[in-house]
Write a structure and sequence with these properties.
Elements: H1 3-6, E1 12-14, E2 21-25, H2 30-42, E3 46-50, H3 56-67, E4 71-74, E5 80-83, E6 97-98, H4 103-114, E7 119-123, H5 134-142, E8 146-150, E9 154-160, E10 169-171, H6 177-188, E11 193-198, H7 205-212, E12 216-222, E13 225-231, E14 240-242, H8 247-259, E15 264-271, H9 278-285, E16 289-298, E17 301-309, H10 330-339, E18 343-345, H11 359-369, E19 373-377, E20 380-384, E21 398-399, H12 405-416, E22 422-424, H13 437-443
Parallel strand pairs: 2-15, 3-14, 6-7, 10-11, 21-22
Antiparallel strand pairs: 1-22, 3-5, 4-5, 7-9, 8-9, 11-13, 12-13, 15-17, 16-17, 18-20, 19-20
Helix pairs in contact: 2-3, 2-7, 3-4, 4-5, 4-6, 5-6, 8-10, 8-12, 10-11, 10-12
Bound molecules: shikimate-3-phosphate.
Length: 446
Amino acid sequence: MSASSSTSPQPRRFNATGPLTGTIRVPGDKSISHRSLMLGALAVGETRVSGLLEGEDVLATAAAMRAMGATINREADGTWSIHGVGVGGLLQPAEPLDMGNSGTSTRLLMGLVASHAITATFVGDASLSKRPMGRVIEPLTMVGAEFDASEGGRLPLTLRGICPAVPITYRLPVASAQVKSAVLLAGLNTAGITTVIEPVPTRDHSERMLKGFGADLTVEEVDGERIITLRGEAELKPQTIVVPGDPSSAAFFVVAALIVPGSDVLIENVGLNPTRAGLFAVLRQMGGSIEEVNPREVGGEPVADLRVRHSALTGIAVDPELAPSMIDEFPVLFVAAALASGTTTTSGLDELRVKESDRLTAMAEALTGAGARVEEREDGLVIHGTGGSPLRGSANSRAKTHLDHRIAMSMAVAGMASEAGVLVDDIRPIATSFPNFIALMESLGA
Ligand code: S3P
């Protein structure tokens, strides 16, 4: 059971801080960590993973893959060893799979189970149990799987997979890497060609890693759409994987350094896959000083160290086309916007309403409570910044995190640039993606 569901809420106040200085390294990428465990568990032989994110979400994936037959161990030096069962070899889990807070674990594993002749029940915490699963139930029903879901296509749900499954061609109705990945993972154990058509590109870690494991996968661009084809029943070859640092975790430190006067921080080993790096482009457009040092490749992904210095930020209209490449970074972008001069306008962000929380309402309420001027629209927020002065903060009222790690960390950063500090109502969810977030902030002087 995840910490967030097993203990009572843990409030914490985040106060104004002097300059943040020093060098840090953020934990491994969450998306890549989930996929390393899943594909390692389907390869024949031993996959070794270093830099795996050891947050609750990824540990939920590890536990589920063990429950379906893989052998997964953490060695003393932090390397993870995975002995896979082979494509088609997943076993029926004896107990319901506890997905905790993790939408990625749930949707990708539903894809894997769908093309095996096994039945699995998925359960999760209060946040995950509110999130829509219809977006994966629809394509996985087309491959032949059957579902007993809670009302509205939600968890808890039971999935009866099928083998042989039907190879499908599926055009994504929402820009979602999780839905894309669920269909591709179902296609792995399906004879024939599975095709996903992606009108708007989303993070491509599944495609990169499937190729890396030896799957026969192609990506073409036709009339601005990405067409991904996967030939099923491939044999996956075990890999040695180095997981780059998570840009979505680095984001909190980038914004903190930009808005706290005098800061100068080096964040090492940040993944800069173009399908993930939108925030850094937007912050530069706003005037942020973010320098890429020592660009290189780690585990087939572009990586660099980021040197970030305090900067005067100016509000902009954020191009909605960038949204998929920074979908998890909007909460912390809103914090940067609240400290900028002028107005920042965001739009096209309907998907933020179905993340770990409704991130538009949650951030509008939390930032307003801390003294920011925020207008909530149906598909985005409009934020009138302070021009660099600290936010008022709040002496007593609590910023509500709604079991959402990114709301908790974003409001922690807001507190660091406020007069009265910000009281975050519950910091437990931070452990889902970034267990050492507070320790790293403290190491920079916060
Ligand atoms: C993820 C995809 C995104 C993102 C999530 C991780 C993934 O979700 O928000 O944190 O690893 O595929 P959607 O596919 O729902 O946009």
